[in-house]
Amino acid sequence: MSWLFGSSSNAAQEPTTGPVQTSQTQTEKPKPCCVCKPEKAARDDCMLFSKGEDPAQECKSTIDQYKTCMAGFGFKI
Hints:
The chain has 77 residues and is an all-alpha fold. It has a domain at 30-77. Helices cover 65% and strands 0% of the residues.
């Protein structure tokens, strides 16, 4: 079965290539769905459960908090 999985000593000696570099790039800038989760949840709750006529105006502060958080990660909204 070692031919199927290879030995760990051989894998450690192989040079690192594309996939490792790609994962490092992804860790530098995460996906937008994976950041600012509490701010996003607060914004969504405010918008969904708003009883006012203009939820966007009523939830402006939570929306601004979410935008500020996303901007901190390099996303433009």
